[in-house]
Amino acid sequence: MSLMEAAVFQGDGAVAVERVPVPVPGAGEVLVRLHGCGVCNSNLPVWAGKPWFEYPFEPGAPGHEGWGEVEDVGDGVEGWKRGDRVALLSGKAYAQFDVANADALARLPEGLDGRPLPGEPLACAMNIFRRSDIREGQVVAVVGVGFIGALLIQLARSAGAQVIALSRRPYSLEVATQCGATATFGTEDWYAAINAVNELTGGAGCPRVIEAAGEQATLTIASGISGEGGRLVIAGYHQDGPRQVDMQQWNWRGLDVINAHERDPAVAARGLREAMEAVADGRIDPFPLLTHDYPIGRLGEAFQAMQERPDGFLKATVSL
Asked: Which UniProt keywords apply (predicted)?
């Protein structure tokens, strides 16, 4: 039996690396030898050991931002062969191998050998962008500039929009400017940020606002800068309890409020393929945004850095 290394989350910040059997692809599945996996902010509660999870996690879980090359295919799989370089949508990618449905893979662009390319968050960005309906000449606000927010700034600029970026971290605002934002504001003072954007827009607010941090503060700010008849897009992952919104404000302004989290596997896979096309044609450039890389044995350090967000940190990957 072939063995591989895989991370096992044990709760309270403890992550072990264990030797476990390499998975076998079933019918319609592909086995991928992983080169790396992105470290997702949504997994912080898993690493921290929140009581609503059961530990230990299965080996490799909850890694879901993997890329690598095809190692083997299951029965009935066509179009994929050993050595094809791919990004994949899977759930146990903090490991040297993982399996995915054959429809949940996308080919990596040519000429990127050896470069990290976590496809799943790029797919999310493409699906959020589609749901945002951004048009040339619009003023778009992105509230919360992490990896996804920075990608959305790039996509909005590629569509011909002007972008206002808001974040509490000065480093993130520097990244936003590098990605094409034409104005940036800090968010330590929620209402000062709202007033600054409304003053910049002559009181009209923004026809498109993307909330991309998943916090009460960013949701409040995003609501306050949305223009009448505009679209408020919820891209942040709100997972730490209920939120409060000003429904009178939403009603009065006639906002379209869009939850841009996709759960249809076919939609997610389409976003993954579109993301690889966007990387190939230059609409998005994720590589400067991947600021830190760790070996799998230091995965816990990656989560620690993501929690603390030291200056210069935006997105971590794990090499496998």
From this structure: Metal-binding, Oxidoreductase, Zinc
Contact by Cβ (8 Å): 59, 95: yes
Residues 79 and 204 in one domain: no
Closest C-alpha to 132, from 151, 106, 107: 151
Q: From CA 130, how far away is CA 299, in angstroms rounded? A: 32
The answer to whether residue 162 sits within a structural domain is yes
The answer as to whether 13 is a domain residue is yes
Report the C-alpha gap between 320 and 317 in whole angstroms: 10
Q: What is the mean pLDDT of residues 51-61?
A: 95
Axis crossing angle, helix 170-178 with helix 147-158, rounded to the nearest 10: 30
Range of the structural domain that residue 306 is part of = 3-118+290-319
DSSP-assigned letters across all residues of 178-204: HTT-SEEEE-SSHHHHHHHHHHHTTT-
Quick one: 108 and 162 in the same domain?
Answer: no
Looking at the structure of the chain, the number of domains it has is 2
As given in the structure block, the two tokens for residue 66 are 């993997």
User: Has residue 114 got a pLDDT over 90?
Assistant: no
Question: Is 112 in the same domain as 224?
Answer: no
Biggest CA-to-CA distance, the chain: 67
Written as one string, the DSSP assignment of 258-304 is: EE-----HHHHHHHHHHHHHHHHHTS---GGG--EEEEGGGHHHHHH
Q: What count of other Cβ atoms lies within 10 Å of the Cβ of residue 141?
A: 31
pLDDT, tens digit, 9 for 90 and up, residues 194-252: 999 999 999 999 999 999 999 999 999 999 999 999 999 999 999 888 999 999 999 99
Answer whether 0.85 is exceeded by the pTM.
yes
- Tokens representing 303 are 């989560």
- pLDDT tens sequence across 256-314: 999 999 999 999 999 999 999 999 999 999 999 999 999 999 999 999 999 999 999 99
Question: Which residues touch 55 (CB under 8 Å, ≥6 apart)?
Answer: 9, 10, 11, 49
